[in-house]
Specification:
The chain has 112 residues and is mainly beta. It has one domain (5-111). It has one helix spanning 46-49, and strands at residues 5-7, 14-18, 26-28, 35-38, 52-53, 57-60, 67-69, 78-81, 88-92, 99-101, 109-111. The strands form 3 sheets. A 5-stranded parallel β-sheet has the order 2-4-6-8-10, with no helix packed on it. The chain has a 3-stranded parallel β-sheet with strand order 1-3-5, with no helix packed on it.
Length: 112
């Protein structure tokens, strides 16, 4: 797998890594309210998250049975459960000020 280096612009960016976020990737959302979208919670580790900065939203694109740990990325302000599989999405270590959302058009369970 190659190294992916992303620097967002001055607006709101969505950085879609699907199930491919790794410790060799560098993600800098830049200015704006930026979203990191991933579909495999196992990809969000202390090693891969250390390379993520200036990202305000974390979007879980699949319920894969693992937990999305918000303590791994500093500065997150919103958790988004964005999947239609019917599986459960679990967010752990949320801070009290964090906002959570799940699109109502999908029947999904978000556990916090």
């Amino acid at each position: 797998m190659s190294n992916i280096n992303v620097i967002g612009g001055s607006g709101d960016d969505t950085l879609n890594f699907a199930a491919e976020l790794s410790s060799s990737d560098t993600v800098n959302g830049g200015a704006g309210n930026d979203t990191l979208a991933i579909s495999d919670a196992d990809d969000l580790t202390s090693t891969s998250a250390a390379q993520v900065s200036n990202v305000e939203y974390l979007r879980a694109d699949a319920g894969d049975g693992a937990s999305y740990d918000f303590s791994l990325i500093s500065g997150l302000t919103k958790a988004i459960a964005n999947h239609n599989s019917g599986d459960t999405v679990t967010f752990t270590n949320l801070v009290p000020a964090l906002r959570c959302s799940s699109p109502t058009r999908w029947s999904a369970t978000t556990t916090m």
